Amino acid sequence: MEHRIERIKKQLHSESYKLTPQREATLRVLLEREEDHLSAEDVYLLVKEKSPEIGLATVYRTLELLYELKIVDKINFGDGVSRYDLRKEGAKHFHHHLVCIECGSVEEIVNDLLEDVEKIVQSEWGFQVQDHRLTFHGICKQCQLTPVKATQ
Ligand SMILES: [Zn+2]
Ligand SMILES: [Zn+2]
Ligand SMILES: [Zn+2]
């Protein structure tokens, strides 16, 4: 984690931003909970546990800055909440998500898998793909194993 913070710090510096203690606290929460997809509010509550002096507005501004610098991305799984998601290091495009309609779990697919589709979009529509969002909705492995509960 320290290496990643160091690299992000360098990236901030190259864009003339400093890694202030408030920004670092926010970043640490995102790194610690990388598997999760946290809303600004979630991030704020976790930051507050360790640094009670940091306010929601500061956390929010930090998240927006990290978004502008393409360190995090924003994603919405259809519940109207923007969630912040760290980009994978070295990944050209955003990763994909598998959202379970039974239990709400979210899994990530880090491999792009879309190179062929991107080529077709480029050649058929003359469109230059910069990025994409792909969310699969379905039933996770765990839920497929659990027998359907009788409705009460
Ligand atoms: Zn994700
Ligand atoms: Zn791609
Ligand atoms: Zn499930």
Automatic annotation (TrEMBL):
Highest taxon of source = Bacteria
| A Pfam family | FUR
Residues the record lists as binding Zn(2+): 100, 103, 140, 143
Cross-referenced Gene3D superfamilies = 3.30.1490.190, Winged helix-like DNA-binding domain superfamily/Winged helix DNA-binding domain (1.10.10.10)
Q: Which UniProt keywords apply?
A: DNA-binding, Iron, Metal-binding, Repressor, Transcription, Transcription regulation, Zinc
Q: What does the cofactor section's free text say about binding?
A: Binds 1 zinc ion per subunit.
GO: which molecular function terms? Answer: DNA-binding transcription factor activity; transcription cis-regulatory region binding; zinc ion binding
Which residues are recorded as binding Fe cation?
115, 132
Name it: Transcriptional repressor
- Organism of origin is Oceanobacillus zhaokaii
